[in-house]
Design brief:
By secondary structure, the protein is mainly α. It has two domains: 55 residues, Homeodomain-like (Arc Repressor Mutant, subunit A, Orthogonal Bundle); 148 residues, Tetracycline Repressor, domain 2. 78% of the residues lie in helices and 0% in strands. It starts with a helix and ends with a helix.
Amino acid sequence: METQERREREKEKRRQDILDAARRLFWDNGYASTTMPQIAEAAALAPGTLYLYFPSKSALYAELLVEGYDLLLERMQAEVSLGASVRQRGEALVDVFFQFARDYPEYFDIIFFVIQSETRGAVSDALEPGQVKRLHAREDACKAVAAEVLERAGYDGSPGELQTTVDAMWSMLVGAVFVFRKTGKKRFAAVAGQAKRVLLDAVFRGG
């Protein structure tokens, strides 16, 4: 039993080593310029061993995206639930998004910047339908947290309008982080604070 447990731990560690190596390479070089042999070398594995864990580069890339979304979703659900009022839930929602960007810059870049900066043919067309479906489900789950907060604030628009508002919030938060990346860490608090005030005043009135 101990031998089996040790093998499982070693297998999980090797899988994580692969994901860590792939994350660095995708972040530094982009999807199109990163190869499976490069990832195998960075993870100190033979290429054949790498394929035992991930059958393709797109599968590896999709797994990193899913991991990032899962981390963000977990934080959003935990922090938003702590707010006693709608306004506090809204504040927690914005704070956790910015904190995620600071705590997990690699995941944030992969989710919000790297995949958007690549040509569609390099990334989107490489992903399998099942992989794309998983990613959409994760993003929808994150946005559903924001939608719930809006509904609790008394949002009375149609479902389509609610979705549009959530998408606008999402874009604004990503844009604020982009400004932070261009201006440096010293201005992060100022940029995040201003974005938070504008967003909350716009969509959480009366909460």
